[in-house]
Structure formats: C-alpha cells, structure tokens
Design a protein that fits this description.
- The complex is a heterodimer.
- By secondary structure, chain A is mainly alpha-helical.
- Chain A has 2 domains: 46 residues; 225 residues, MetI-like (MetI-like fold).
- Helices cover 82% and strands 0% of the residues of chain A.
- Chain A contains 12 helices and no strands.
- In chain A, α3 packs antiparallel against α9, α6 crosses α7 and α9 runs antiparallel to α12.
- The N terminus of chain A is likely disordered.
- Chain B is an all-alpha fold.
- Chain B folds into 2 domains: 32 residues; 220 residues, MetI-like fold.
- The longest helix of chain B is centred in the first third of the chain and has 34 residues.
- Chain B starts with a helix and ends with a helix.
- The interface between A and B is large, with 93 and 90 residues.
Chain lengths: 273, 264
C-alpha cells in the first residue's frame, strides 16, 4: 500500500510540474515574440488608418515591396527546379563524395548571411576574377536570395524521395512507360506537397532577407532596394511609423504564403487518400 | 546512363557556382598575402572584442532557448491546453520574420520612446544600443530550433515509460532527468547546434538594436559589415573567413549528429 500512497502524493505534484511547462512556454513566447510584434502592429496603426495607408502607399515603399515580391517569386521557382534536382541526385544517384555534398547543402543555414553576401560579392562583384559584375543589380539580388534559400526545397523533398516506393516506378517501366512519363505520373505527384512546403519556407525567408542582400544589392531605391532594406533605412532616418507599416505588410505576406501553401498541401494530401 | 550523369553535373555545378566557389574565393583572398596579415586582422583589440561579445551573446541566447525549447516541446506534445495551436505556430514565427522587423519590434518596446523605454531609462537600465537588446534580438531569432528538433522526437518516443515511472512513484523531475532527457538528448544537441549557428550569424536584428558603438556593441557579423563599408576589404575577408570556419565546424557537427538524431 505504500506504493499507491507514494503515487497518490506524486501525481498532483507531477500535474503541477507538467502545467509549469505550459506556463513557461506561453510566458516566454509572449514576452520574447508576441509583445514586440504587438508593438509593431500598434505603432503602425496608432496614428489612424489613413496614416498607415499613406505609409504603405509611399512610392518608394511600394517599389521596395514590388521588388521583394518579384525577386522572391523568381527565387522560389528556381528553387523548386534546382532543389528537386539536387534532392533527386542525392537520393537516386551514387558517386564519390556524395556525403560531403549532402553536408554542404546546409551551408546556407550555418554561414552568417553577411558573410554569404560578401562571398558572392567576392566572386561575382566588380573585383571578382570572372569579369562579371552582379553588384547593385537584380542579378546580384537573385544570387543572394538563391544562396540563403537553397536548403529548403532540398531538405523537404529529400526524405519523401527516400521513402518513395521504387516498385511503382519499376512496374510503370515494365509496362513501357518512358522515364519522363514515370517522373510526371508517379514521382512528381508524390513529391509535390514537399516541393510546395519547401517553396513556402523559401519564399518566407526570401521576403524578409536582409544580411545577404545588403552588401550586394546596392540598395538603389525603385530598382534593387528590397523591403527589409527599406525598413532599415526608415529606422535609421527616424521614419519609425513608416517602417512599422511596411513591416506589417511584410509580415502579412510571409504569413499568407505559409497559410496558403499549408491549405494547398492539405488538399493535395487529401486527394491522395 | 548519360542522363543521370547530366543531372549530376547540373546539380553539382549549381552547388559549386552558388556555394563553393564564392567561399573558396574568400578563403583565397584571405590567405593571398600569407597567414600573418589575416591572423593580425582577426586579433586586433576590436576584432577580439567582437569575437568574445559574439560568443557571450550566443551563450546566453542558446542557453535560454535550450531550456525554453525543451519545456515548450513538452508542453506542445504532452499537454492539452487552451491556445495549444497558437503556441505551436508562434514557435515557428521567428523563422518567417525579417530580422529587421525583429530589431524594429524591440526598438518599439525597449527604445527611448518605446513602451517600457522611458521607465527603463529612468531606472538606469539601457536595453537598446547595449548588450541586453542584442541578447533579446538573438534570443528572438534563434528561438525555434531546439523546440522544433525536440517535438518530433518526443512524439516518437511516446510517454509509456514516463507513465510507468509515475506509477512507480517517480517525481516529475526524476522522470524528466532519467527518462525524458536521455531519450531526447540527440534532438536537443542538434537543436543547440542550429541555434548556435543562427545566433553567431545573426546580423539584421542585432544591427538595428546595437547602435554599432565601436569596441562595445559590435559583434563579428557587424564587424564584417563595418570593415567592408570602411573599405578595409582584407579585414572584412579575414573576419568572414573566421566565421566561415565556424560554419564549417557547425556543418561537421551536424553531419556527425544527424544519424544519431534520426535513430532516436
């Protein structure tokens, strides 16, 4: 009976300790994440809707958001192709040094973004050995964002390809399907949800990127200035309300991308079943 | 198998052009004039201060986020409570935010004209343009990693052993220390590595709140930018090379840990 007595005493204490995890998690998140974000939203709207509207319809702000969206979309499309291809090669191909290549994929997660920007500038900038100059151009912007978003599609598609049952493909091949046909009809539908998730993550990252972009893009208003750089400029020149308003737009864009892709994913997976 | 070779060539060529070649160039430029000038550039008093400041901020942020990450994962996986879904999505939010927005947010709370700024200044506590602000920015951006790594592992191991321990009279702390923590340790380790890399590499958020006071609030990444803007290209390359070495060590650690994490 002593055991049950011990259990009787221990259980309420365990429940309290378990409840404490909830308390700490919500408290920490509120203090670190929610409170500051609430301050941004509050600041962007505290002078009224028309001030907010004027802030986000400022031509330079609109241009920076347009550049951000267009370049991010391009980056995401390139990533969908290149990421799927790299994942495919890593799973289905075999060659010496594959382990190293697989490890290198995560380099953009490990390397500080400002260093990424500087390295790209060293190779593709005005003093680079190739004689090309992508500094202060849209191409430079593209390069920087392709660098930082590279792992997303690869890392979401790779595990799905690994799990994929090869028998289906072999059956299709024995029935006379060509390789492109097999990819289009069997592999592609299976990896599509993963590709979309990777694209959404890459998009959210590209839309907000700052460190990799700031050195190579030259930050020319209306041409290569992205939204994050615009916000930074506004903070530095005391346009805090302006900065807060564009920040809210940026926040809404990346959340919308994540939600949209989440919805698309759920629909695709449901059709699978 | 010609098409397989073609695909491999394109994939490896893309990686080489985007990741490897630029990094190699920086390594080459750093050591162009030999090792001594590069070493001198990363051991100036300014650079040493930046290095230790980066380590200090990283250590505080990663410790805080490790404790939080484990508790948060336990709350999300093991508990039913109101706002469960909200907590689950909030953990990921820092990944979808621009670092500049994070910096602005902290400015609006702790800055001179911010929500708590006036009160803090009256009590002689400086957050913005000082260490606390830089720590808060780094905590914010590196927050999701430990929780994200631990959540799937906790789901995988289930709670049968914890419940068995409970029926045998183990306290919450005993069962956490003896059963839960050993089960999730590789996930935690992987998350710690990812957080550390993110913390050391943070630039945008820290850049907004640091004020860039030379020799005081300049981290390694800010030093790289600072030197680049001041046309000290060699100095910027040397500091970058040091950060790149840390990144390569991170990759090595990730590669060594990944099989253990996936086995768990």
């Amino acid at each position: 009976m002593t055991t049950s007595g011990a259990v009787g005493r221990a259980l309420p204490a365990r429940r309290r300790a378990g409840g404490l995890t909830v308390g700490v998690a919500t408290g920490y998140l509120s203090l670190i994440v929610l409170l500051p974000l609430a301050a941004v939203v509050a600041r962007s709207t505290e002078d009224g809707a028309d001030v907010f509207w004027r802030a986000i319809s400022d031509p330079q702000a609109v241009a920076s958001l347009r550049v951000t969206l267009l370049v991010s979309l391009a980056v995401v499309l390139v990533n969908a192709l290149a990421g799927t291809l790299i994942a495919w090669v890593l799973v289905r191909d075999d060659f010496r040094g594959k382990g190293v290549v697989n490890a290198v994929i995560d380099l953009p997660f490990a390397l500080p973004t400002i260093v990424a920007g500087l390295t790209l500038l060293a190779l593709y900038g005005p003093k680079g050995p190739l004689g090309v100059n992508a500094a202060y151009t849209t191409a430079g912007l593209l390069l920087a964002l392709l660098f930082v978003t590279l792992p997303f599609v690869v890392r979401t598609v790779q595990p799905v390809l690994l799990e994929l049952d090869r028998e289906m493909e072999e059956a299709a091949a024995s029935l006379g399907a060509g390789r492109l046909q097999i990819f289009r009809r069997i592999v592609f539908p299976n990896i599509l949800p993963a590709v979309l998730s990777g694209m959404a993550l890459a998009f959210a990252r590209a839309v907000g990127e700052f460190g990799a972009v700031v050195l190579i893009s030259g930050n020319i208003p209306y041409r290569t200035e992205v939204a994050s750089v615009y916000i930074f400029g506004q903070i530095e020149s005391d346009g805090v309300t302006q900065a807060a308003a564009v920040s809210v737009v940026l926040l809404v864009i990346s959340l919308a991308a994540l939600l949209l892709i989440g919805g698309v994913r759920r629909r695709i997976t449901r059709h699978d079943g | 198998m010609a098409s397989r070779l073609a695909l491999r060539t394109v994939a490896l060529g893309y990686l080489a052009a985007l990741l490897i070649a630029p990094l190699a160039i920086v390594g080459f430029r750093t050591l162009e004039d030999g090792f001594a000038p590069a070493w001198a550039a990363v051991t100036t008093p300014e650079a040493l201060h930046a290095f230790w400041l980066t380590i200090l901020i990283g250590a505080i942020a990663v410790s805080a986020n490790t404790v939080f990450g484990i508790l948060c994962a336990l709350a999300i996986v093991r508990r039913r409570f109101r706002g469960h879904g909200l907590v689950n999505s909030l953990v990921d939010l820092p990944l979808a935010l621009s670092p500049v927005v994070v910096g602005l947010a902290l400015l609006l709370v702790y800055g001179r004209n911010g929500w708590f700024g006036g009160w803090l200044v009256d009590h002689g506590i400086q957050v913005i343009f000082a260490l606390p602000g830089m720590v808060l920015a780094t905590v914010f951006v590196s927050l999701p990693f430990v929780a994200r790594e631990v959540i799937p592992v906790l789901r995988e191991v289930g709670d049968e052993q914890e419940q068995a321990a409970a029926t045998l009279g183990a306290s919450w702390w005993q069962s956490f220390w003896r059963i839960t923590l050993p089960a999730i340790r590789w996930g935690v380790a992987y998350g710690v590595i990812l957080s550390t890399a993110r913390a050391i590499g943070e630039f945008g958020a820290v850049s907004v709140v640091s004020g860039k006071v030379a020799g005081e609030t300049v981290t390694m990444t800010l030093l790289v930018e600072n030197r680049f803007q001041n046309f000290d290209l060699a100095g910027a390359y040397a500091a970058s090379a040091l950060l790149a070495l840390i990144a390569l060590a991170t990759l090595l650690a990730m590669t060594l840990l990944r099989p253990r994490r996936d086995d768990a």
